[in-house]
Design brief:
The chain is of the alpha+beta class. The chain has two domains: about 5-125, OB fold (Dihydrolipoamide Acetyltransferase, E2P) (Beta Barrel); about 155-305 and about 365-470, BirA Bifunctional Protein, domain 2 (2-Layer Sandwich), CATH 3.30.930. The protein is about 35% helix and about 25% strand. A hairpin with a 2-residue loop joins strand 12 and strand 13. The radius of gyration is 29 Å and the shape is elongated. It starts with a helix and ends in a 24-residue tail after the last helix.
Length: about 475
């Protein structure tokens, strides 16, 4: 029998003993009066009643020390002979282990080493842990284990716990920023008859009640929010989960949080001003500064934001003229640059691969503008150059961290672009958009000029300089092989 199995058997024995004594090792309530943080704010000699998880227990005979942790902090408990009923001290010694949840009553004091502590007078077992915690000072090192048992990673590593506190602050800031500017928060469908609003491969599922195949949304209700613009709302936004059946890497997940807003009577220039203000606000709230290092780039959101031209940048870094050069030349250049691409991809998918190569050379912050209409089927054309659209992408640290445009509200132009996208999909382009006839019909009733914008939690991961998977509490994992219950 291994060391861990011995610990498990010993704790199971303790549970059985407690039950025989009429003590419930899993009571349903404890009247907690103060959090640990509130206890720490008390004066010496104050009575307190708190609870939490035992992280460390050291029994030195006449005195025992416990590190107690709750969601607000950690405090030292002292169990001293003569200061606590003997039966309570013996209860601690015999039945309480690291990992257990306990409730205590006592009074605040300073230990001999001047550490703020609680001298315990009463103790109650609230939850008996069966499995032992990882080593306090080592935590979980294995990456697979860290994601699979994220609850332990959060428990043992304050840095991991802080990520999700900051993430809550990130989305709270986004929500408050938009509400303060008159945007209405809305909810749109997650299940759709056709996955619209973006160029991506959707997840497909079946709706039993209606007996039809549906898709999980790939955008944050883009086409639905535009229908709300038709309906008369002028400022809307949604924060929620969306799904794209694509690869996993440092920047991409298949199930993630996105925000999109839609703003009537505004265009992409207005969108750039608003989003620059939003990003500066987010950096200050989450990081406390506009200057940070991330993914090998030094970024200063406080400096003047650049304007990057799609066509000119590609020409500068690859010598390709995206409007005159053919697929053969573009493939040749991609091969020379050792950029991976789908051999069945159409010309404009290949051009997009060229752009992504060039993007890595830009530290930002800046806006990418003047995208070809072929790569952005939902954006309004540039009146000065019909080959291009009024779109902007926020570029920071060599990646795209936000996308917006003046929304296309010409139903005839939109229908023609959907028809082109449908042909690409028939030819095997899984990311091409479908012809959404219901959306075109809504546009025919009239939609005002609108600026739309979307940003995902990738921005948060870049602010923290971490892979996006580290910034998700419970990323999807393959089922563990030979998984033994309780192990």
């Amino acid at each position: 029998m291994g060391r861990e199995e011995q610990i498990i058997q010993e704790r199971l024995r303790k549970i059985e003993e407690l039950r025989k004594q009429g003590i419930n090792p899993y009571p349903n309530k404890f009247d907690k009066k103060q959090t640990i943080q509130e206890c720490l704010a008390n004066k010496i000699g104050e009575k307190v009643k708190t609870s939490g998880r035992v992280m460390i227990k050291r029994d030195l005979g006449k005195i025992a020390f416990v590190r107690l942790q709750d969601g607000t902090g950690e405090v030292q408990l002292i169990f001293q002979e003569g200061k606590i009923p003997e039966d309570k001290r013996k209860f601690l010694k015999k039945y309480i282990d690291a990992g257990d949840f306990i409730g205590i009553e006592g009074e605040t004091m300073k230990s001999k080493t001047k550490e703020f502590s609680i001298l315990v007078k009463k103790i109650e077992l609230l939850t008996k842990a069966i499995l032992p915690l990882p080593e306090k000072f080592h935590g979980i090192k294995d990456e697979e284990e860290k994601y699979r048992k994220r609850y332990l990673d959060i428990l043992m590593n304050p840095e991991t716990k802080e990520i999700f506190v900051k993430k809550a602050k990130f989305w709270e800031t986004v929500r408050n920023f938009l509400k303060e500017r008159g945007f209405l928060e809305v909810e749109t469908p997650v299940l759709e008859n056709s996955a619209g609003g973006a160029s991506a491969t959707p997840f497909k599922t079946h709706h039993n009640a209606l007996n039809l195949d549906v898709f999980l949304r790939i955008s944050m209700g883009e086409l639905w929010q535009k229908k709300l613009m038709v309906a008369g709302y002028e400022k809307t936004f949604e924060i929620g989960r969306q799904f794209r059946n694509e690869g996993v890497d440092m920047e991409h997940l298949q199930d993630y949080t996105q925000m999109e807003f839609y703003w009537a009577y505004a265009n992409y220039l207005d969108g750039m001003k608003l989003t620059e203000e939003l990003y500066k606000k987010l950096a200050k709230e989450v990081l406390g500064t506009l200057k940070f290092e991330t993914h090998g780039y030094n970024v200063d959101l406080g400096k003047k934001w650049e304007m990057y031209d799609y066509e000119k940048l590609i020409k500068k870094h690859t010598k390709v003229d995206i409007y005159t050069d053919d697929e053969k030349k573009i493939r040749k250049v991609l091969d020379e640059l050792k950029v991976e691409y789908d051999p069945k991809a159409s010309k404009w998918r290949l051009v997009d691969s060229l752009w992504k190569y060039c993007r890595k050379k830009l530290a930002g912050p800046g806006f990418l503008i003047n995208h070809p209409v072929e790569v952005s089927p939902l954006a309004k054309r540039n009146p000065d150059d019909k080959r291009k659209v009024e779109q902007f992408q926020i570029i920071i640290a060599g990646t795209e961290l936000g996308n917006g445009y003046s929304e296309l509200n010409d139903p005839i132009d939109q229908e023609k672009r959907f028809e082109i996208q449908a042909k690409l999909k028939e030819a095997g382009d899984t990311e091409a958009q479908e012809h959404d006839k219901e959306f075109v019909e809504a546009l025919k009733y009239g939609m005002p000029p609108v600026c739309g914008f979307g940003v995902s939690e990738r921005l948060f991961s870049y602010l923290l300089n971490k892979p996006i998977r580290d910034c998700v509490a419970f990323p999807l994992m393959r089922p563990e092989e030979n998984n033994n219950e309780g192990k």
